[in-house]
Every structure is written in C-alpha cells, then in structure tokens.
Specification:
Layout: H1 16-32, E1 46-47, E2 60-64, E3 70-72, H2 84-97, E4 103-107, H3 113-125, E5 132-134, E6 136-137
Parallel strand pairs: 1-6, 2-4, 4-5
Antiparallel strand pairs: 2-3
Helix pairs in contact: 2-3
Length: 138
C-alpha cells in the first residue's frame, strides 16, 4: 500500500503590519528630529578653527547666555537657567557616570568674559579635566 504523504502548507509571514509599524515610526522620527535640537539661543563668537571630531557620547554643554545665566544640557529642563551650585551638582554627576565625556562651554559673544571664566571654574570644581570653548566657524 502506497503511503500517502501529507504536505503541510508553508506558513507565510504577513508583512503588512510590519510595514505599517515602520511607516508610523518613520513619521514619528520625521516629526521629532527637528525638535531634538535643544539648547539656549546664543550668538557664538566667530573663530577660524577646524571643527572637532565627533565622539560616541553626547558632550556635556554649558551655555552662558547674553544675560550671564548658566544652562546645562542635562537635568530635568535643559532650557531653564541653573544656579552655580546646581551646575556643579549636575556636572559632577555627569562626570561620575562618564569620566571621558567631552565638556564644552558655549558663551554668547556679548556676555562678559568673566561669566564664561566662572562657568569654566565651576566645571573644574566639578572634576572636569578639560573644557572646550564653542565658536562658530567663519
């Protein structure tokens, strides 16, 4: 007696839901990407220097605006000014998490130079070994 083979139907994956999810994610990223550019608006001084190379981790950026207020790109609200002690606390915590993190100071070109130096001194007090200054390329 010949043995009758039972063939199972080949299972096919329905990819339509995956395409829908990918399109939704694409739209979300397209909308949120421009919003991710956070920071305080400052007019940077111009300098004739080459851009720095990119690193894996996002740098810690301290901004000194035209009124001499300090901002830091970490914490609960990076768009709100912070006091000197809060700046030291946040920078210390960030450096404990990642000691190799690059630290940059963005100072408005109209701010008193003393405020930029004060920001650098506070960062040094936080244990930051090196601080870079941000300028706009000419």
């Amino acid at each position: 007696m010949a043995r009758r083979s039972r063939r199972r139907p080949i299972a096919e994956i329905n990819v339509v839901p995956y395409i829908d999810v990918m399109l939704v994610l694409l739209v979300i990223f397209m909308i949120t990407a421009p919003l991710l550019k956070t920071g305080v608006e400052v007019t940077l001084p111009k300098a004739d220097a080459k851009p720095m190379e990119q690193t894996q981790s996002e740098p810690l950026i301290v901004t000194v605006d035209g009124e001499g207020r300090f901002f830091i790109n970490i914490g609960e609200d990076p768009e709100s000014p912070v006091g000197e002690e809060q700046l030291v606390t946040l920078a210390t915590a960030a450096m404990r998490r990642d000691g190799d993190r690059r630290v940059l100071v963005r100072g408005d070109q109209g701010v008193n130079y003393q405020k930029v130096v004060r920001a650098m001194a506070l960062l040094q007090r936080s244990g930051v070994p090196q601080v870079g200054l941000v300028a706009e390329a000419q």
